[in-house]
Amino acid sequence: MVISFSVLIVSGSSVSILLLLAVAPTIFLLWFFYNQDRYRQESKKLLAVTFFLGALMISPAIVIEVILKQIFPEGNTLIGVFLYYLFEVALIEESSKFLAVRIYAYNSRMFVEPMDGLILGVTAALGFATVENIAYVFLYGIGTAIIRAIIRVPSHALYGAIIGFYLGEAKFRKRPTLALNGLVAAIILHAIFDTTATVLPSIIGIVALVAFVLVLYYRVVKGEIREAEAESPFRPGGPGRVLPRSNKEILPTCRLVNIAFEAESELRGPLAQPGRALDFYAAPEGHVSW
Predict the structure, then answer these.
(1) Other CB atoms within 10 A of residue 132 CB
(2) What is the distance of C-alpha 208 from the center of its chain?
(3) Measuring CA to CA, how many Å separate 78 from each of 182, 283, 289?
């Protein structure tokens, strides 16, 4: 009886630890991105609803992915693996995050500036990623929790930031088709990430994906944050000059370790410089538990 009671205590403690490890990266990233808005922070109610919608989206995404995998299984070649992740994983998951923002927050009166889009995109992505992360952590344990906290959850947040930034640009430039730029970019980046995680050996893959996440933040998302700040109507002295953005600003020329973002405008930032190429020494998830 004493032994059984002790086992229950240990088991309960283990569950609490695993749950904490699963949600800790979400808490940190929500706090981090929320505080990137220096001029007017977003409505907490809108963030909560968006997070919940992002979490809900994982259920239909899983169902669709399972069905598609039965019909079109993963290929045996590098191209086959990439196409599998592009159309049967990344397309579904990033579209789910996109919809989590688009169906409610996008039309809200509390969505009042471009920075809102970026942070709402991160929030929706973290809602989605949190449910996924809890499942992985409880299945595979503490090691997986640590690796996913460093790589997988931040990557989801960064894809969401890109999607949300372009949703914000689409709304405030009154050009809805711009939203597709961010969605396409996030889908391609996600597919590269997952392909790398599948193809490269574990240690090399982890190092590559850490580099991927760092490059994506410092060369893309950080620039989007600066641009959104410059466009903020709450910025002291008013927003900077807002130039028109082309619908063809993001032209993906997809290779395993290179994505080129070509811009036709004169806007500053890594997504708006003509011919600017970003090299990512990374890519995927796949059969590995992390």
Answers:
(1) 20
(2) 17
(3) 25, 12, 20
Read off the tokens for 198: 């599948």
This prediction has a pTM of: 0.80
Please give the single-letter amino acid code of residue 56: L
Say how far apart CA 68 and CA 73 lie, in whole Å. Answer: 8
- Token pair belonging to 156: 């989801």
**What secondary structure letter does DSSP report for 235?**
S
Residue 254 has phi, psi (to 5 degrees) of -85, 115
Tokens (6 digits) for 62: 């899983």
At residue 140, what is the residue type?
Y
Strand (E) or helix (H) holding 261 = strand 258-261
Residues 6+ apart with CB under 8 A from 1: none
Look-up: residue for tokens 């807002």?
Answer: 242
What is the Cα–Cα distance from 115 to 207, expressed in whole angstroms?
A: 31
Sign of the torsion angle spanned by Cα atoms 59, 135, 185, 193: negative
Q: Are 258 and 252 in contact (CB under 8 A)?
A: no
Cβ pair 127, 177 in contact under 8 A: no
Compute mean pLDDT per 10 residues along the chain, 290 residues long, and list them. 37 82 97 93 94 98 95 90 96 98 95 94 98 96 95 98 97 92 97 96 94 98 95 80 48 34 35 32 38
Do the beta carbons of residue 278 and residue 220 sit within 8 Å?
A: yes
Q: How far apart are CA 18 and CA 214, in angstroms?
A: 26
Helix (H) or strand (E) holding 260: strand 258-261
